[in-house]
From TrEMBL:
Main location per the UniProt record: membrane
Species lineage: Bacteria, Pseudomonadati, Bacteroidota, Cytophagia, Cytophagales
Pfam families: AA_permease_2 (PF13520)
Official protein name in the record: Amino acid permease
Transmembrane segments: 12-35, 47-71, 83-104, 124-142, 154-175, 195-218, 230-251, 280-304, 349-373, 385-407, 413-430
Subcellular location: Membrane
InterPro entries: AA/rel_permease1, AminoAcid_Transporter
PANTHER family named in the record: AMINO ACID TRANSPORTER, SOBREMESA, ISOFORM B
Superkingdom in the source lineage: Bacteria
Membrane topology: Multi-pass membrane protein
Keywords for the protein's UniProt record, in alphabetical order: Membrane, Transmembrane, Transmembrane helix
Length: 436
């Protein structure tokens, strides 16, 4: 098995931040507001959704920062849960992430990219474009980590600049809508309503990816120092972008036009700039989604690689190239992504996966308390800011969301738990094969 003694290229601070930002800023922020306004009509409550969702992600990032600095190895939740609880718990987390957690969202972003591009250039075949983007980015990242990292920084920088320009243009030129963002008594009632909690599920999906850097922790330069900074800076930057972007959407576009619509960014651009320029929003969002697809193709295979290093039955997927890239794991993830992209029936997979993925992040942050109690002497180059408040806040808000998913989406939740049971069976088989 070809294993380089020393990685040729290490991920720096800016590349790490780019990976976090690119993973987070995807389809969710451009599509979910239209469904939120169906149940919530308060401008303040709608913005609070994005503030609370960002607070959850930020508290999670601060908590993960301590774990990442204390246990600096690639693999994310798979590595942490295996160490803190039991290898079977880590395997189940890795199983869900490897089979659904990265491949399906990557496909969703690729499909959205194709559709937005086709809205600008109708002659394009959206599905063919989606497939070509996935294949091209896979080749880039499988060839060179350095080239892939530089590409990631460039496209993410373009993404952030475009969003900032859009927010600035909206604030300067949009016609204000008769919607108040100053809280009234009735607004607070909406904040604690079931509709708010259900909408928070979709907002949490939009913020998913704040933990992306921990999946490549073993390839980060000075991980004890850089990982906490990467997680915090990347998440805080996205929080500001999301709140600003959704404020512009609400400030510029009537709620009646947004209700039930998916192409929120396109509608807001039409409202601000007119139909001629607004039509180009499809091209802009397509450019932004290239960064999202790229970052997921880069980060996801590292989970499978680490699982392969620990489990003999998956050992072939741990093989890395002479440049230290898990090419086989990357090919496997991209193959799943292409399958979802071509079939276009994976949206239901995302719905049920949301519950189980949130469950494992909940267990990971809870593990912060377990690890401090069990190994108080473990070197911790970084400790979670405002501990225990930040992890407790994450657990409280995430737990509240999980309860509402289980209550309002019972079938999707049960399918998610069934996925875990299948993973448990796969773990049992792998252990028996290893013992033979």
């Amino acid at each position: 098995m070809a294993q380089p003694s020393k990685p040729i290229y290490k991920i720096g601070l800016y590349t790490g931040i780019a990976i976090v930002v690119a993973n987070m800023v995807g389809t969710g922020v451009f599509t979910s507001l239209g469904f939120q306004v169906l149940g919530i009509q308060s401008g303040f409550a709608l913005l609070m959704l994005w503030v609370v969702g960002g607070l959850i992600a930020l508290c999670g990032a601060l908590s993960y920062g301590e774990l990442a600095a204390a246990l600096p190895r690639s693999g994310g939740e798979y590595h942490y849960l295996s160490y803190i609880y039991h290898p079977v718990v880590g395997f189940l987390s890795g199983w869900v992430s490897a089979t659904v957690g990265f491949a399906a969202p990557t496909a969703l972003a690729a499909i959205a990219l194709g559709k937005y591009a086709a809205s600008v250039w109708p002659s394009l075949n959206a599905q063919v474009l989606s497939v070509l983007v996935v294949l091209t980015l896979t080749i880039i990242h499988a060839t060179s980590s350095q080239a892939g990292s530089r590409f990631q920084v460039v496209v993410t920088l373009i993404k952030v600049l475009l969003l900032v320009l859009f927010i600035g243009a909206g604030l300067l030129t949009a016609t204000p809508q008769p919607l108040s963002f100053v809280p009234q008594t009735a607004d607070w009632h909406q904040v604690i309503s079931p509709a708010f909690a259900v909408s928070l599920v979709y907002v949490s999906y939009a913020y998913s990816g704040w933990n992306a850097a921990v999946y490549v922790a073993g390839e980060v330069e000075q991980p004890q120092r850089n990982l906490p900074r990467i997680l915090f800076i990347g998440t805080a930057l996205v929080l500001l972008l999301y709140v600003g972007l959704n404020f512009v959407f609400l400030y510029s576009t009537p709620l009646a036009k947004l209700g039930g619509q998916v192409e929120v960014g396109y509608l807001a651009a039409n409202q601000i700039f007119g139909s001629a320029i607004g039509r180009l929003m499809g091209a802009v969002i397509a450019v932004l989604l290239i960064s999202t697809v790229s970052s997921m193709i880069f980060a996801g295979p590292r989970i499978v690689q680490v699982m392969g290093e620990d489990l003999p039955v998956l050992r072939s997927l741990a093989v890395v190239s002479k440049r230290g890239i898990p090419v086989r794991a990357m090919i496997m993830q991209s193959a799943l992504t292409l399958l979802f992209t071509i079939r276009s029936t994976f949206e239901h997979v995302l719905l049920y996966a949301g519950f189980v993925l949130s469950l494992f992040t909940f267990l990971t942050v809870l593990g912060l308390f377990v690890l401090r109690w069990r190994e108080p002497e473990l070197p911790r180059p970084y400790r979670a800011w405002a501990y225990p408040l930040t992890p407790l806040l994450f657990l409280g808000l995430s737990g509240w969301t999980l309860i509402f998913i289980l209550r309002d989406k019972p079938m999707e939740s049960l399918y998610g738990l069934l996925t875990v049971l299948i993973g448990a069976g796969a773990y049992g088989v792998s252990r028996r094969m290893s013992a033979v």
